[in-house]
Every structure is written in C-alpha cells, then in structure tokens.
C-alpha cells in the first residue's frame, strides 16, 4: 500500500521551507518592533469554545470543523485562532497586565472545505490580537501593520476594504430591516441563506452563491444594505478611524457595505485586504473589532481588535527568496577529521557539511561544488601531517594553503 498526504494537506519540503521561514522572520520583525509578543496556543480546543465564540450559525462551526470525541468530551482542531487566544487571555488572567496587551501568533488551522488555490484543509495563518483599547486608534494600528507586512513582501494590487457593522444594539435594528427586505424573496435564496435568515441574517451578506449575490443587489434589499442604520457612537468610531488612516497615509481603500466577515464575534470595524491575482477567493487578510468576545467566553469586558493573514496565499503571490548558501564543505580522506573540523567550524558560527561516503577526493570535490558552498576545506594527507588546510574558492576556483582553522578564518577576514 502506498501512503499519501491526505486531501487538503501538503508537505512543506526542504526546498520550500526557507520561503516559510522568510515570511515568519520578516513578519516577526515588524510585529515585535510594534511591541507585539508571540503567543502559542494548542491546535485543539473544546468544541464549545468555537461554537460560542465563532458562532454556531457560521459555516465554520456548522460544516467545516474537524471534531472528535475523547472520553466523553467533544474537541475540535482549531478552525481559527482568535477564540483560542481569548481563551488563553481569560485563563491566565492577562487582563491584569498593563493595557494594551499586544499578541501575535502563527500556525496551522483546520477546516473541512473544498481545497482551492491558496487554501487547504490544513492551512496556516499569521495573526495579531490587541486587547484593552476601545478607540479606533487600535483599529488603525492593526490595519497599518497588516498593510506593512504585506507590502514588505512586495505585493502589488492590494485593496483595503472597510465596513462598520455597528454594535450589538444598533445591529439588531439593521438585522430586522434586512429580514423585512429579504422576506419576499427568501424562497429564491440558497438553503444555507434560508437558515442564516433565522439565525443571523447578516451572514447572508457573506454568501458566495452567485444567485444570492444577485438577489442582494435587488433595489429593496440593496437600499437597506447601503443605508445608514448604525448608531451615532458607531458612526463616530468609523469617522475617527478614517482620520487615523489618513494620518498613517492609508488613503486608498473602499467602503464595502456588504463586508461582514464570516465570523459572528465581530462588531463595528471589519476589514479585508484583497489581491485581484487570486481570483474569486481573493482575500489575503481579514479582521476587525470583537469587543463582546472576551465577556462572551467568560472573561471581563475587554475591547479587542485583530486580523489573520493566510500564509499559503502570500506564498502563492511572492517570488521565493534565495535560500542561504552553505559556507564550507569539508573534503578529506579521514572522515573522523572531517567531522571534527565541521563541528569546530559550526561552533564558530559558520555552516558546514561533509561527505559521509568516503569517496575519492575528486567525487567529494564534485559534491562540494554541487552543494552551493562558498569554500571547500581540503584535508589531505599532507594537510593532516602539517596541520594545514587547502582552501578552495568554489566560485573563482582559486585555492591556497593556510595554517589550520585560524589561518582560514584570517583569510576570510574573521579573527
């Protein structure tokens, strides 16, 4: 029997891993410069955490979670990481830490959905969560950081889309008006949207079904969607956010009144960053404000805002960076001496490898050239007898004899 990776999963092979490391390192530098600290949470949690936090009316909870039973408890592989971070925030009393608390994470998420370009059933996200600031300055900072991270990878054709979906109070009026407008055409919507109509009608705006999208554009429904039903404090929050974005020189964005995001915990600000090169599934980053979530999950009232970036989608858009070349390849008839000197070289901060096969010098030198190393350190009988090295520059072909490792490092300009 031949075993293969499961559908919707992908091995990250050695020649690809440096791309992932590059994304992680660049992002880490940007986020830690803004005083965000890394948090690592388990990849599985209690299923109830996601049902309460993400929302049992969402496709994620209703259709896409990987759940399993263990000793009578229902557990789930995390479909997203905000709920897990909030659980950790509450469990470890992080609300008692100085505010704001800024966290970032990276890691695999799991959703049982149709594999598509840039999205697998096991996929990876990079994200931030900022706790303790209710004002729009926090929204502006996380948006700016997302734009900075994506720009650092040289991504063009990015579009920031913004919306304000209001607070729980004013959103109820919006939901009622939306239901009234949709009711005459409800039977024409897809089965999923008819269920959303009863549980959370705002989720209808997130439907990807082409017929439903067309129905939402009908005059009566579109008038409600494009109306101005949010309360004055929510309007003021959005006005101030746009002022902060202007200060940060983020002026190229569009207001998308249909943007609600696919998770129930959002309020007020929601946003996506899209790239046209990805086709219909074009979001590379999504996020927003989720002030009610901490208290919904049993913690104290704590405002919060964050985002997540799909790492596979970034990788599909950027040119892969060159991997770090090997510094030194050691060539010798004595495997013991080669191994000893490789260890010494590595201790001094250089990368080094050797041939473990005991082949002839010519074959070892051939392997050294193919390894991409900058230098070959040659240890023949004469070198071993005199405690010297022959150093060959594998780029220019030049070689010279030096006195031991000290002579080699002097040749490289290192003391």
Structure description:
The protein is of the alpha+beta class. The chain has 2 domains: 14-167 and 230-317, BirA Bifunctional Protein, domain 2, CATH 3.30.930; 328-411, Rossmann fold (3-Layer(aba) Sandwich). It contains 16 helices and 16 strands. It has an 8-stranded mixed β-sheet. It has a 5-stranded mixed β-sheet with strand order 13-12-14-15-16, with helices on both faces. A hairpin with a 2-residue loop joins strand 3 and strand 4 (73-77). Helix 5 (136-152) crosses helix 10 and helix 6 runs antiparallel to helix 9. The longest helix is centred in the N-terminal third of the chain and has 20 residues, at 14-33.
Task: For this entry, give a set of tags.
415 residues; alpha+beta; BirA Bifunctional Protein, domain 2; Rossmann fold; 2 domains; five-stranded mixed β-sheet; 16 helices; 16 strands
């Amino acid at each position: 029997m031949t075993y293969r990776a499961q559908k919707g999963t992908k091995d990250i092979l050695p020649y690809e891993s440096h791309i992932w490391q590059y994304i992680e390192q660049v992002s880490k530098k940007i986020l830690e410069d803004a005083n965000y600290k890394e948090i690592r949470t388990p990849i599985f949690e209690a299923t109830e955490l996601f049902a309460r936090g993400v929302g049992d009316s969402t496709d994620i909870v209703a259709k896409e979670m990987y759940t399993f039973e263990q000793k009578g408890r229902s557990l789930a592989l995390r479909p997203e990481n905000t709920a897990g971070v909030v659980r950790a925030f509450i469990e470890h009393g992080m609300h008692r830490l100085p505010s704001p608390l800024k966290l970032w994470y990276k890691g695999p998420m799991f959703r049982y959905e149709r594999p598509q370009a840039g999205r697998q059933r096991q996929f990876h996200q990079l994200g931030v969560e900022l706790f303790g600031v209710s004002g729009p300055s926090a929204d502006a900072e996380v948006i700016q950081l997302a734009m900075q991270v994506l720009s650092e990878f040289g991504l063009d054709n990015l579009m920031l889309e913004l919306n304000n979906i209001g607070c729980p109070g004013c959103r109820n009026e919006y939901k009622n008006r939306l239901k009234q407008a949709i009711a005459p055409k409800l039977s024409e919507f897809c089965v999923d949207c008819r269920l959303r109509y009863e549980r959370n009608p705002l989720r209808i705006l997130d439907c990807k079904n082409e017929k439903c999208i067309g129905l939402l554009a009908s005059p009566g429904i579109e008038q409600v969607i494009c109306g101005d039903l949010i309360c004055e404090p929510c309007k003021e929050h959005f006005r101030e956010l746009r002022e902060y974005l202007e200060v940060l020189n983020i002026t190229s964005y569009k207001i998308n009144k249909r943007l609600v995001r696919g998770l129930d915990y959002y309020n007020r600000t929601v946003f996506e960053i899209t790239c046209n090169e990805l086709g219909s599934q074009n979001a590379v980053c999504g996020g927003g404000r989720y002030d009610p979530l901490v208290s919904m999950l049993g913690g104290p009232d704590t405002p919060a805002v964050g985002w997540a970036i799909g790492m596979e989608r970034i990788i599909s858009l950027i040119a892969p960076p060159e991997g770090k070349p090997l510094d030194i390849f050691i060539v010798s008839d004595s495997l013991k001496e080669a191994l000893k000197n490789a260890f010494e070289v590595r201790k001094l901060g250089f990368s080094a490898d050797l041939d473990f096969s005991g082949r002839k010098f010519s074959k070892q030198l051939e392997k050294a050239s193919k390894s991409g190393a900058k230098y070959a350190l040659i240890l023949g009988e004469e070198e071993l007898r005199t405690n010297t090295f022959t150093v060959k520059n594998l780029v220019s072909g030049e070689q010279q004899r030096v006195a031991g490792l000290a002579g080699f490092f002097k040749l490289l300009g290192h003391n």
